[in-house]
Every structure is written in C-alpha cells, then in structure tokens.
Amino acid sequence: MIWCVEDDASIRDIEIYALTSQGFEAKGYEDGTSFWDALQAEATLPELIILDVMLPGMDGVELLRKIKSSSKFSDIPIIMATAKGAEYDKVQSLDLGADDYLVKPFGMMEMLSRVKAVLRRCQPKKDDTAYQIGGLIMHLNEHTVTADGERILLTYKEYEMLKLFMANPGIAFTRDQIFSKVWGTDYIGDTRTLDMHIRTLRQKLGTYGSFIETVRNVGYRLEAVQ
C-alpha cells in the first residue's frame, strides 16, 4: 500500500490512478493532520509514502521529521514532492531522512519509476543461504527443510540436529558433542533421548533418513553425498 499525501485533489487522484494502474494499492490524504492520525491508527503500515512539502496544517517537512524520529514509522520509505526551484526543501528533506524527491510538476512515469526504485532499495535483503545434500535442502533464511520439493515439518531440536549434520557432511559427532551443540552445554543428556530424536528425524526425512549414519562407539554423521 502506497499513501499519497497531497492537498490538490486533481494531483492526488492522478497519483492514485497511476499507481493502481501499475498494480499498486494506493490511498490518498488531503492534509497532514488526517494523514498523521491515520498513520497512528492503522494496523498495517504503508510500504511507501509520497509526501508533499506544502500541506495545510502540518506541512510535509514537519511530518517527515515526526516519522523519522519514531521507532515505529522510521523505516517507511518516503518520497518528498517539492516545488520547482525550492532547493532548500530538497536538501532539508534528504537531511531529515527522505529516500528521494520529486520536483513539481512531475510526470507520472517519473513518479512510478522513482517509487519502484525506492521500493527496490528499501526491501530487506534476503539471505539465500541453504544447505543441500542431494534433494534434501535446508533453507536457513526461511528455517524450513524440503525433500525433493516437499516440505518436512521438524521440531526445533530435529531442525538443529539436521543443521549441524548438513553444515558438516562426513564429520562424525560424538553424542556429547551433539548434546552440547543442540541441547546446550549445561544439558546432561540421556542416550535414549538422543537416539529417539535421531530415529524420528530419520523417519521424517524418508529416503534421506538413511544419510544419517550411526558411527559405532562414537555417535552420528551425515553421509557426504557427491
């Protein structure tokens, strides 16, 4: 959702039309006070705000300052709309944390281009790190495991054990090492507890369960599959 704060109804309507025609959801506010009240009341925050500098009541610069000083709202990207030749407004807006600015009068293609660019820059970077053994994949950023594309539901301990094995294929871990790394250094483990978790994990992994090998008189390891 993109919020457009603009007191000129014709400009505001065009902005909303241009955004919705490109697949965005958009909402308009005609003054700073109604916008600020809505921002505090809404459960879902906007993805981006297009904020005019010249507004009745609270102006855009004052609103920008309030937004960027708030721990709840400071991460919302903001594009300021400034008057032609008002260089001070542009500099002040950027100094206060605005992500970009548009100089009036601006075309809708330029506005859309800047909106898309700011959204790309401000999107959180995804950690695409994953461990993979054959068709068994652990997606670390999503905290999920799939086997041949099918999601496998694991408990926290099962996930942590599998992560330990997949991060270190071919390496044998003693029972004490597994207890220390998965249960915590202060945990005094019962061998049957570990064996039960390994057995359940193997069952959930299906054909990939056989990759977890028992190392006699030592512990367990994950087969290093080439």
Task: Name the assembly state.
Answer: single chain
Which residues sit in consecutive blocks of at least 5 with pLDDT less than 50? none
The arrangement of helices and strands along the chain is EHEHEHEHEHEEEEHEHHEE
The CATH first-level class of the largest domain comes to Alpha Beta
**Tertiary shape:** elongated
Please give the alpha-carbon distance between the first and last residues.
Answer: 46 Å
Helical content class: 40-55%
CATH architecture of the largest domain: 3-Layer(aba) Sandwich
Number of strands: 12
Would you identify the CATH H-level superfamily of the largest domain?
Answer: Response regulator
What does the secondary structure layout of this molecule look like, with pairings?
Blueprint lengths: L1 E4 L3 H13 L4 E4 L2 H10 L6 E5 L7 H9 L9 E5 L4 H9 L4 E4 L4 H15 L7 E4 L2 E4 L4 E4 L2 E3 L3 H12 L5 E2 H9 L7 H15 L6 E4 L3 E4 L4
Parallel strand pairs: 1-2, 1-3, 3-4, 4-5
Antiparallel strand pairs: 6-7, 7-8, 8-9, 10-12, 11-12
Helix pairs in contact: 1-5, 6-7, 6-8
